[in-house]
């Protein structure tokens, strides 16, 4: 064990050589009424949060969480199959299904659990899962635990998926799993082309909408709406911890699918139900999102503006077209330097380094939320460019 612990210590010590370079596990003081956080007495604009719809501190959501605690107490008292189901859990599942236009839904303890549980319940030895190279770790872990054969295809490359499906065994379940929006790149899966390939090879298509709910589609309903509801997904799943500011994961589909998951998804069967406060908050946030689609439009407008400012000045934002705006710095060390310079300029932009991303494409993962005002986004753009000039990522003369 010792060599492993020592290797971790050396790597983290090198990246965080002084306190101003420490970016992970920093206990930011959160002001739930703004997009600002506090650190050591100074306020910063948080530009790396995941609360896309800006509802984390919303009075209505907070009140709903409190009301749920008042009525049901703090814990769920067990797994859903035994003592853990309350009317509130069922209300949330009905709301998730309604919001996403499906007949049924199931809510898990987290998005991670939803992926692991769903893949494991649908596939096992003798089946094949085809995953995009950039799929989230919970999809990868779900595949490993399922015991199915796992095949990776190149990122957002339906032709490569086609080749992989041709080469694979025709027997058993063939499940293709992609993220709707990729969490580190902010690009969107090419759903129509993927659907075509799946249909040609008798494969099921599952999407993880973790970064899509509340973010893409005209009203934030995710990837099907983004493609004008012309393409159907077989299994849709996501989290209640990003656009919806709570905890939990969800799956929507046919009543048969949901019944199967209830009885076979192990993280659902063997892990406690969501606590009432989380359920109450998620339910209220979904209802607000339904009534306030301006949040989605705001995220889309402001992230497009931010991308334009950055790319015009010569920064790379890769193929981002969503609220997730990666700003490439280069090596892991450059990303840490850039994050530190951004902090000096007044914003928190957290670095994403290898092995999460290739070590030539280490970046700040910037995210635009409905909590950011237009002035916040302008400020963030200026700060990102000022820091980029300081780190020599762009010439000192680059336009702001
Ligand atoms: C694409 C994707 N799927 C699933 C998850 C897991 O969601 P949760 O945090 O609810 O476990 C995440 C979280 O980062 C994610 O980015």
From TrEMBL:
The organism's place on the tree of life at top rank: Bacteria
Pfam families named among the record's database cross-references: Aminotran_1_2
Domain Aminotransferase class I/classII large: 48-380
UniProt keyword terms in alphabetical order: Pyridoxal phosphate, Transferase
Gene3D superfamilies per the UniProt record, alphabetical: Aspartate Aminotransferase, domain 1, Type I PLP-dependent aspartate aminotransferase-like (Major domain)
A GO BP entry: biotin biosynthetic process
The reaction(s) this protein catalyses: 6-carboxyhexanoyl-[ACP] + L-alanine + H(+) = (8S)-8-amino-7-oxononanoate + holo-[ACP] + CO2
InterPro entries noted in UniProt: Aminotransferase_I/II_large (IPR004839), AON_synthase_class-II (IPR050087), PyrdxlP-dep_Trfase (IPR015424), PyrdxlP-dep_Trfase_major (IPR015421), PyrdxlP-dep_Trfase_small (IPR015422)
GO terms, molecular function: 8-amino-7-oxononanoate synthase activity; pyridoxal phosphate binding
CDD domains the UniProt entry points to: KBL_like
Cofactor section: pyridoxal 5'-phosphate
Enzyme nomenclature, EC number: 2.3.1.47
PANTHER family, sorted: 8-AMINO-7-OXONONANOATE SYNTHASE, CLASS II AMINOTRANSFERASE/8-AMINO-7-OXONONANOATE SYNTHASE
The protein's name in its UniProt record: 8-amino-7-oxononanoate synthase
